[in-house]
Write a structure and sequence with these properties.
Elements lengths: L1 E11 L7 E6 L21 E4 H9 L6 E5 L7 H12 L5 E4 L4 H4 L5 H5 L4 E4 L20 E4 H7 L8
Parallel strand pairs: 2-4, 4-5, 5-6
Antiparallel strand pairs: 1-2, 1-3, 6-7
Helix pairs in contact: 1-2
The structure holds iron/sulfur cluster (SF4).
Iron/sulfur cluster binds next to loops.
Length: 163
């Protein structure tokens, strides 16, 4: 199985708490105005890497506190990211995922909701230029929520993380 990616950041401190291994997925359909990464939009752009290669790189990295799926939108390659998340969770690795979709829609979608089982944190929603913020950590605009996925699933309502 291969992932199509725009790039990797193997020890980032800006894409979630702690030091994180970040996978920038290639492909995004949201077309948010003011997006900083338009090069990640074409679904046939970027480059292909073996999922095994990324998985091995992550589990052999002793310095990270977690993994972040960013983009682009990782949900464009939902099967591949479900597989990677499932395998990483067997090692109890913390996983944060960005998407332009919102939690309320994801939970109604047969395939998209499956990945929630393996995520710790979901940053949801499109980037809205008029709501751009520098005050809220790890988001581009203040409509985007940082959701504690496991608590939200259990309580059947959205529980946001307060950092
Ligand atoms: S979801 Fe993210 S990558 Fe996609 S257009 Fe919006 S800001 Fe850009």
């Amino acid at each position: 199985m291969k992932l199509r990616i725009a790039g990797l950041s193997k020890e980032s401190v800006v894409d979630g708490p702690g030091i994180r291994y970040v996978i920038f997925a290639q492909g995004c359909l949201h077309n948010c105005r003011g997006c900083h990464n338009p090069n990640t939009h074409p679904i046939d752009g970027g480059y292909l890497v073996e999922l095994d290669e990324i998985y091995n790189d992550i589990i052999n990295n002793k310095f990270i506190d977690g993994v972040t799926f960013s983009g682009g939108d990782p949900f464009v390659q939902i099967d591949e990211f479900i597989e990677l998340a499932k395998r990483l969770k067997k090692h109890n690795i913390n996983i944060m995922c960005y998407t332009g979709y919102i939690y309320e829609d994801i939970i109604k979608h047969e395939k998209y909701k499956e990945i929630l089982n393996y995520l710790d944190t979901l940053v949801d929603g499109k980037f809205i230029l008029e709501r751009k913020t520098l005050k809220k950590p790890y988001v581009g605009s203040d409509n985007q929520r940082i959701i504690d996925v496991q608590k939200s699933l259990k309580q059947n309502k959205i529980i946001e993380v307060k950092w």
